[in-house]
Amino acid sequence: MDLQLKGKTVFISGSTSGIGFSIARIFLKEGASVYINGRTEESVAKAIQLLKTDFPNGKIEGAASDFSKAEEVESLIEKLPEIDILINNVGIYTAKSFFDTTDDDWNRHFEVNVMSGVRLSRYLLPKMLEKNWGRILFVSSECATLVPADLIAYSSTKTAVLAISRGLAQLTKGSSVTVNSVIPGSTMTEGAEQFLLDLARSNKKTTSEVEADFFSEARPNSLLQRFASVEEIANTIVYFASPIAIATNGSAVKLDGGSMGGII
Ligand SMILES: NC(=O)c1ccc[n+]([C@@H]2O[C@H](COP(=O)([O-])OP(=O)(O)OC[C@H]3O[C@@H](n4cnc5c(N)ncnc54)[C@H](OP(=O)(O)O)[C@@H]3O)[C@@H](O)[C@H]2O)c1
Q1: Is the domain of 66 the same as that of 176?
Q2: Most buried in the list 25, 100, 152, 179, measured by CB within 10 Å?
Q3: Ligand 1 lined by 68 (C-beta under 6 Å)
Q4: Relative to the CA of 21, which ligand 1 atom is closest?
Q5: Which of the following is catalytic: 35, 93, 154, 239?
Q6: Do 92 and 74 have their domain in common?
Q7: CATH of residue 148
């Protein structure tokens, strides 16, 4: 299937590792130009170097910006070139009891997970509407509806982006711009791998055993019953960002392996 992404320019927030990095790889494979983002020049340069090894002719730029700092986001936006596809991927979480979660914790989660996408979309969506083409994807999480008790702040940000995404889609009526969100389930990033390794070590079990425990105890409705790979999530995100996905607009697409339950 030709995703018709050649010549498109993509900005992916939080893309020096994890799901974002995998999204960048797939866009490059499809012939798009990518803008990589992380908090520091060093991490961005390292990610670009890795990508250049696999895609020596790929068009890869970097833009360091910490989305917890509004002034850094402001200067990032000033430097952005024309962007066809915006992937609002950056997301942080801290597992904490609700009673220990401070105002600072709440604000940091909202700055990085919600305001990143709000600020980038406020700048880029009018330009997309003007040229009558564009794609915006928000990366939510199964936690948006599962709301684990130790992740209430994180989960709230992931529910918020669903509303923002739907609201922005309403502004695209009659155009060839779409705004959607995707809802991944538990995904095997470097962070998740470390989490399983630590748990396995402390419980004197194998990583397969602690992964099976996690799904039977914390994600009993999962039909996949394992972590999705970053590629399994990223492939779907790239599809919904492509020109051929024009019929999907204002949607929240579940990539949760069934963990959220229900039909839709
Ligand atoms: N992994 C999962 O199981 C899972 C499940 C559902 C949803 N999600 C969602 O999917 C998205 C990606 O998750 P992930 O697990 O791939 O994340 P991750 O591995 O923790 O992402 C790391 C990336 O985020 C960047 N980053 C972190 N804080 C940043 C900040 N303040 N400003 C700019 N960049 C920042 C890092 O950049 P540097 O280190 O270079 O600064 C790095 O590129 C998130 O929105 C997450 O909520 C993940």
Answers
A1: yes
A2: 179
A3: yes
A4: 43
A5: 154
A6: yes
A7: 3.40.50.720
Q: Structure tokens of 23? A: 């999204």
Cβ-contact 86, 138 below 8 angstroms: no
Establish if 2 belongs to a structural domain. no
**Ligand 1 contact via 184 beta carbon (within 6 Å):** yes
45 lines ligand 1 (CB under 6 A): no
| pTM of the shown model | 0.98
- Asked about 123 being catalytic, the answer comes back as no
Residues 117 and 236 in one domain: yes
Ligand 1 and 229: CB distance under 6 A: no
Burial code of 225-248, b = ≥16 C-beta within 10 A, e = fewer?
ebbbebebbbebbbbbbbbebeee
State the pLDDT confidence band at 252, using cuts at 50, 70 and 90. Answer: very high
Q: Residue 207 sits in which domain range?
A: 188-226
Token pair for 4 = 């018709």
116, 203: one domain: no
Question: Can you tell me which atom of ligand 1 is nearest the CA of 154?
Answer: 47
Query: Which of 16, 77, 89, 90 best tests ligand 1's pocket when mutated (most atoms within 8 Å of CB)?
Result: 90
Q: Work out the average pLDDT over 76-83.
A: 96
Name the amino acid, one letter, at 248: T
Q: Do 155 and 173 share a domain, yes or no?
A: yes
Domain count, the chain: 2
Q: Whose CA is nearest to atom 6 of ligand 1?
A: 141
Q: Are residues 98 and 208 in the same domain?
A: no
- Residue of minimum CA distance from atom 26 in ligand 1: 14
91 exposure class (CB count in 10 Å sphere: 0-12, 13-18, 19+): buried
Using a pLDDT cut of 70, give the percent of the chain over it. 100
Query: Cα separation of 118 and 207, whole Å?
Result: 38
Domain assignment present for residue 75? The answer is yes
210 in the same domain as 122: no
For residue 229, name the pLDDT band (cuts at 50, 70, 90): very high
User: Which pLDDT belongs to residue 144?
Assistant: 98
Residue 103 lies in a domain: yes
